[in-house]
Amino acid sequence: MNKLVMVFILVYSGGVSAGSFIFAGEANGVDIIAHPTGYDGVVDVVNVSVCIDPTGDETTLLESPVKNIVTTFNNLRSESGNIISGSANNIPSGALDWESVALHEVGHCLGLAHPNLGSQTGVSGANTNFTASTDGADNAFDFDDGADNIKGTSDDLRDDDINLHWYNTGINNPFVLTPPYDSSNYSRTLAGLPGGHTYVTNASLEASSSLGAPSSEAVMQQGSRSNEDQRELGADDEATLRYAMSGVDQTSGTADDYTFNLTYGGITTGCDIMIKHHDISGLAFCSVGGSFISGSSIQITGASIEIDAPDFTWFFNDVIFKDDNDDPD
């Protein structure tokens, strides 16, 4: 099988529909769907173990946040208004919430990419909020945010940039859930956009109020803010995971559908997803390996997360879920 390796980096930002999948792009194909470790097109329950690397720093402080992350993904339940800032959360002023950052990185380990362009070659500043795409045949991203002056929304003009963001056809609203989560109801091509829409909207904080979901953003949106609690999935995150769960045929209710179950393995080695907190250059990144299981489906074969930045003050949430239905805040 063809083997692939990718690295996804989360960049700190002082202010800064279904989504996208890792490995999708010009190199591997724009229609790629990524699946968690262990999915082979046949198995119906994918078990994914998550561990804390014992050679890292602050290992015991990571246990409660990691257990919460495991529960959050297993619940697979999105929340509107999933950004909680200021005195409404338990994060000290000026600190970064480790749990929120790690939740994003584990999303990469399960197959999710950024729904926005994020920081990459040819993209910087506010342009990172434009919807995920290739740079097209001209090898240059095209940025026109349309009449609403909000980047990454339905009136953007992107010329030949090829969209990578799966969205609910006829709706193009990443803040609402519209089952079934499969190719009958979600699309990557622009042909399914509602009349008058020119590009796919992504679930940025900037777009949330205009679409009736204030203080909401996809967890997988690249960018992290101080004093921000984002410990719950957004609708975009849930829909993208559920789309992948429709299997290699991208059709719900067929034999290749699956569910996933994350388990916390402790402070040890040998798990499917390894998390290490230590001094690195940057804020956080996820290294993911994968291999093709069909023409457009890739199985993750290994994933490791590294988080830290000496210049930042970290907050390690010690409030753990009591059960699968409790909110940690």
Automatic annotation (TrEMBL):
Residues 1-18 form the signal peptide. Keywords: Signal. InterPro entries: MetalloPept_cat_dom_sf. Residues 210-225 have a biased composition (Polar residues). Gene3D superfamilies: Collagenase (Catalytic Domain) (3.40.390.10). Residues 210-233 are annotated as: Disordered. This is Peptidase M10 metallopeptidase domain-containing protein. It comes from Marinicella sediminis.
